[in-house]
Write a structure and sequence with these properties.
The protein is an alpha/beta fold and about 375 residues long. It contains twelve helices and 14 strands. It has a five-stranded mixed sheet with strand order 5-4-3-6-9. It has a five-stranded mixed sheet with strand order 12-11-10-13-14. Helix 2 (about 25-35) packs across helix 3 and helix 8 packs antiparallel against helix 10 (about 290-310). The longest helix is centred in the C-terminal third of the chain and has 21 residues, at about 290-310. The chain starts with 10 loop residues before the first helix and ends in a 6-residue tail after the last helix.
Length: about 375
């Protein structure tokens, strides 16, 4: 399993991360991975065992050498909360200390929700994750729309909720719950979810593409999440569309609602159905000019993105997954026809196997990766 490169992890956090993410199962493997002596590693592991975070799960006898005492994380040592939202929908997930998902909840959000109301809704979702949890809450991760500074936990800019800009999301949530809080752009936490729970586990260079009310990407390059110098990497939904001044934005053309209207022939003022994935599934066998138009729009934008990023694979998230593998394959084919250089750096787009809870899972994974023992 590939992993993101995270610098300056403290030793105990690196040990826990090695067991959880990399599948490391013995003291000797951990010592080799971290670069310390087996005896020193043994002391650290024994301390984690005494504190109730790790246990020995058995013995593995290899073909040569001494038997290895296998290690595993104790699920009940604590839990992590994750919340992610876009305009209209919020989801939250609880992961135990071993990284297993124990609960997912979904809230539909009223339109034009103000910043303080949105913050209260995030906190309400976190509280709803408490019942049935084992051990203390160890951390919270939040995936927010807009440009987010992970260092300060502040939302720098939000297109769809103007009074969300400037929200000190990490600080306000930390004051409320008294645990470490990590904040990222919501597309970035979906990339984390793809790495933890999806097909991105074996990839070092991939992009997640999600279209709901808006459109954007989360980029993983050479094993690292690429947030950008100003925390705006992947926000191609804010490109002008068509590629000229005054023509709207890419998210106007490629949102899930717009694609549904294009395929169904619904007028622009018509609200999308409550169950948009089901409505798109009903259109997934469509052929003709409307289908080709939607494919061409996606092929043009993703093809240009591929020439910029050169990812090995793109994972499609959100309601448009309901259009199936044919939609993705048609986009791949059309992109090469529109942009012949892609024959040498081919675009590969596939529907993600993860469901609509992926953002919440990624946000909880963000908190889990940030965990650091409080006694160190």
């Amino acid at each position: 399993m590939r992993t993101f490169k995270i610098s300056q992890l403290r030793m105990y956090a690196r040990i826990v991360r090695g067991i959880r993410i990399d599948g490391t199962s013995s003291r000797a493997q951990l010592a080799g991975q971290v670069g310390i002596s087996p005896s020193t590693m043994g002391q650290h592991v024994d301390d984690l065992i005494q504190r109730g975070f790790v246990e020995e799960s058995g013995i593995e006898q290899g073909t040569v050498g001494r038997p290895k005492r296998l290690l595993r994380l104790l699920p009940g040592a604590g839990w992590f909360a994750g919340v992610e939202f876009t305009n209209g929908r919020m989801q939250a997930a609880r992961l135990n200390f071993a990284g297993e998902c124990e609960q997912v909840i979904v809230h539909l959000l009223p339109p034009d929700l103000g910043g303080l109301d949105l913050l209260n809704e995030i906190h309400r979702c976190i509280e709803e994750l408490r019942p049935g949890a084992t051990g203390p809450m160890l951390g919270i991760g939040i995936g927010s729309t807009g440009f987010v500074d992970p260092g300060s936990g502040v939302v720098l800019y939000a297109e769809f909720t103007p009074d969300w800009s400037g929200m000190a999301l990490a600080e306000r949530t930390r004051e409320r719950f008294g645990v470490p809080v990590s904040v990222e752009n919501n597309l970035h936490v979906i990339a984390l979810a793809e790495r933890w729970f999806g097909a991105g586990r074996t990839e070092d260079n991939f992009v997640i593409v999600r279209a709901r009310n808006g459109f954007g990407m989360g980029i993983v390059k050479d094993g690292s999440l690429m947030p950008g110098a100003h925390h705006g990497a992947g926000e191609i939904g804010l490109w002008p569309w068509p590629l000229e001044k005054g023509g709207g934005y890419v998210y106007d053309a490629l949102s899930a609602q717009t694609i549904w209207r294009d395929l169904s022939g619904a007028p622009p003022e018509m609200a999308p159905p409550a169950d948009l994935p089901a409505a798109l599934t009903a259109l997934s066998e469509q052929t003709g000019a409307a289908w080709d138009h939607c494919v061409e729009k996606y092929a043009r934008v993703l093809g240009m993105a591929q020439l910029l990023i050169d990812a090995r694979i793109f994972f499609l998230h959100g309601p448009l997954r309901a259009l199936g593998a044919r939609f993705c394959q048609d986009i791949t084919t059309a992109a090469q026809e529109l942009l012949p250089p892609l024959r040498h750096a081919p675009l590969q787009l596939v529907p993600s196997a993860l469901g609509k809870e992926s953002g919440a899972l990624g946000a909880a994974g963000l908190a889990m990766e940030a965990w650091d023992p409080p006694w160190r």
